[in-house]
Amino acid sequence: MEYHAWSLQQLIKYCICRGCTLSYILKRSCYCGERSIVDYLLQFYINVINLNDGLSGACRGGHIDLVNLMINKGANNWNGGLYPRNLACPYEVIPFFSRIS
Predict the structure, then answer these.
(1) Are 71 and 38 in contact (CB under 8 A)?
(2) Full-prediction pTM beyond 0.70?
(3) Secondary structure element (H or E) that encloses residue 2, with its range
(4) How many C-beta atoms surround the C-beta of residue 72 within 10 A?
(5) d(CA 93, CA 53)
(6) What is the pLDDT of residues 10-40, one digit of tens each?
(7) Which domains occur in the chain, in start order?
(8) Is the predicted pLDDT of residue 5 greater than 80, yes or no?
(9) How far apart are CA 46 and CA 44, in angstroms?
(10) What separation, in Å, do the N-terminal and C-terminal C-alpha atoms of the chain show?
(11) pLDDT band at 2; cut points 50, 70, 90
(12) Cα distance between residue 55 and residue 63, in whole Å
């Protein structure tokens, strides 16, 4: 995806100026499968973002690699990740949670 030649830092700053929180940016990035943004947020803002928001977004978007990443980084709200609206489309996420339960 092209970001109009903005750096990730500029993109995140723009989103914050428009009223988004870092956790919301993480959740939407996980939902959309934007790994570069997720990695940037984890690298520079790990102490101020809610990893469970990322887990929820990754589950809802069906991005099993990001589900794994959020869990490995410390996300632990299984109820939020498994909430029915988060599992509307990703069929491979359900068996994943069955294995770790």
Answers:
(1) no
(2) yes
(3) none
(4) 9
(5) 16
(6) 888 888 888 889 999 999 999 999 999 999 9
(7) 8-100 (1.25.40)
(8) no
(9) 6
(10) 35
(11) low
(12) 10
d(CA 60, CA 81): 8
Q: What are phi and psi of 90, to 5 degrees?
A: -85, 95
Torsion angle, alpha carbons of 30, 34, 37, 69, to 10: 50
- For residue 83, give both structure tokens: 């909430």
Any idea of the CA torsion for 71, 34, 32, 70, to the nearest 10 degrees? 10
To which H or E segment does residue 59 belong?
helix 51-61
pLDDT tens, 43-79? 999 898 999 999 999 988 888 899 889 999 999 887 7
Helix (H) or strand (E) holding 78: helix 78-81
Q: How many helices (H) and strands (E) does the chain have?
A: 7, 0
Segment 79-97 mean pLDDT: 57
Cα 97 to Cα 55: distance, rounded to the nearest angstrom: 12
